C-alpha cells in the first residue's frame, strides 16, 4: 500500500508567558497507508493536535519532514488540498446561519458543487435539521456539522480530531458506521479520539503518542498481542488444591477472593486437563485479553490511575480553531 501521510522526526516547541518553553512534539513519526482507518491516540497534552496542525500547515514545525498524499507539507499542501477533508479541535460556526447555509457557503468558497450539501447532511444524519439555526444545535449536532464540512470535497483523505465529542451512544455508533462506509469506499481516515473502545472497534491500525513521542504503532491486533500475558480467570470448587496442582506443572497462579488468576498458559486445555484429571471440574475458564484502554494506560501513565491529566494539547488554549479548507488558512467562525 502507498503512504497517504508520512511524518518523520517532527518537532515543535511553544513559548508561553506562564510555562516558558514547552516541547509539544519531540521527534514524532507517523505513517498512514492508503485504505486504513488509523487511530491516533494520546493523553491530553501529548501532542496530537499540534501534530495535526503542523501536518495541515496551521503551525510551523521546528524540525522534521511531512507529506500528505505524496506532496511535501506545508510547501506543496495546496496541490492536494482539494483531496483532503479535516476538522481540528472544537467546531465553531456562525450561530445565526443554518447548517445548510453554512455548508453552501463553504462549498461555494471551495469550488465544490452545491449539490454536495444535501448529500453530506444525509451522511451525518442532519438532513431533517439542515434548515435549523446552528445556535440551537447541541454539541453533538455541531460535531456532525463539522464532519459534514470535512466531507464536502468528497475527500480521499479524512482527518478527524475527536469526531465523537458530544455524541450520545446512538450518535457514536452512527459515526462508527459512517467511518466504515467511507473506508469501504476507499477513503483513508486518520481518527483522533479519547473513546478507546470505539477506536478498537473501528480502526485497523493505531499510533499512540505520549509526551510528544510515538510509543506504539501497528495493527491494532498486533499492538494488543504485544501486551498479552496469556492470563485466565479460573473458578473451581477447591481453589487451594487447584493452585497446588497448577503450580506442579510450573504455571503461575494468583489467588483472589472469588477466582484464580492463571498466567502464562497459551492453551486453555492445559488448565482444564490438569484439573480435570485430578477430579476438579472447572466452573469458569475465561481468557483475559488486553484491550486498547489497558495498553494505552500502561504506555502513557499509571495503569492504576485511569484518569488522564487535564492539559492543553500542544498549543496555548486561546486558539480554538477549526480548519475547513486545509490550505494553511485558519477559518474562524463566530
Concise structural overview:
The chain has 334 residues and is of the alpha/beta class. The chain has eleven helices and 14 strands. Helix 3 crosses helix 4.
> For the residues shown, what is the average pLDDT?
86
Number of alpha- plus pi-helical segments:
11
Low-confidence stretches: 302-334
**Helices and strands: which structural class?**
alpha/beta
**Adjacency order of strands in the biggest sheet:** 6-7-8-3-9-10
Q: What is the CATH architecture descriptor of the largest domain? A: 3-Layer(aba) Sandwich
Protein name: ABC-2 type transport system ATP-binding protein
Family: Belongs to the ABC transporter superfamily.
Domain ABC transporter: 5-236
Keywords: ATP-binding, Nucleotide-binding, Transport
Amino acid at each position: 500500500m502507498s503512504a497517504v501521510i508520512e511524518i518523520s522526526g517532527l518537532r515543535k516547541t511553544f513559548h508561553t508567558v506562564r510555562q516558558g518553553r514547552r516541547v509539544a512534539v519531540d521527534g514524532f513519526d507517523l505513517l498512514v497507508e492508503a485504505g486504513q482507518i488509523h487511530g491516533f491516540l494520546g493523553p491530553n497534552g501529548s501532542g496530537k493536535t499540534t501534530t495535526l496542525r503542523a501536518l495541515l500547515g496551521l503551525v510551523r514545525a521546528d524540525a522534521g519532514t511531512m507529506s500528505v498524499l505524496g506532496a511535501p507539507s506545508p510547501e506543496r499542501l495546496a496541490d492536494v488540498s482539494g483531496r483532503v477533508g479535516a476538522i481540528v479541535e472544537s467546531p465553531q460556526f456562525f450561530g445565526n446561519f443554518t447548517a445548510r447555509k453554512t455548508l453552501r457557503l463553504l462549498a461555494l468558497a471551495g469550488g465544490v458543487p452545491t449539490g454536495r450539501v444535501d448529500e453530506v447532511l444525509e451522511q451525518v444524519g442532519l438532513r431533517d435539521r439542515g434548515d435549523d439555526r446552528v445556535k440551537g444545535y447541541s454539541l453533538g449536532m455541531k460535531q456532525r456539522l463539522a464532519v459534514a464540512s470535512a466531507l464536502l470535497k468528497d475527500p480521499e483523505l479524512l482527518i478527524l480530531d475527536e469526531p465523537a465529542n458530544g455524541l450520545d451512544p446512538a450518535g457514536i455508533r452512527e459515526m462508527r458506521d459512517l467511518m466504515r462506509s467511507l473506508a469501504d469506499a476507499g477513503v483513508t481516515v486518520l481518527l483522533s479520539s479519547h473513546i478507546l473502545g470505539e477506536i478498537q472497534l473501528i480502526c485497523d491500525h493505531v499510533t499512540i503518542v505520549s509526551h510528544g513521542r510515538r510509543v506504539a504503532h501497528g495493527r491494532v491486533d498486533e499492538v494488543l498481542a504485544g501486551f498479552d500475558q496469556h492470563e485466565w480467570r479460573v473458578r473451581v470448587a477447591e481453589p487451594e488444591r487447584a493452585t497446588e496442582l497448577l503450580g506442579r506443572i510450573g504455571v503461575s497462579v494468583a489467588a483472589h477472593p472469588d477466582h484464580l488468576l492463571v498466567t502464562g498458559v497459551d492453551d486453555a486445555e492445559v488448565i482444564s486437563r490438569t484439573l480435570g484429571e485430578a477430579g476438579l471440574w472447572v466452573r469458569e475458564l475465561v481468557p483475559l485479553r488486553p484491550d486498547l484502554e489497558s495498553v494505552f494506560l500502561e504506555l502513557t501513565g499509571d495503569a492504576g490511575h485511569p484518569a488522564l491529566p487535564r492539559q492543553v494539547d500542544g498549543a496555548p488554549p486561546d486558539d480554538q480553531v477549526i480548519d475547513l479548507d486545509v490550505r494553511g488558512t485558519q477559518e474562524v467562525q463566530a
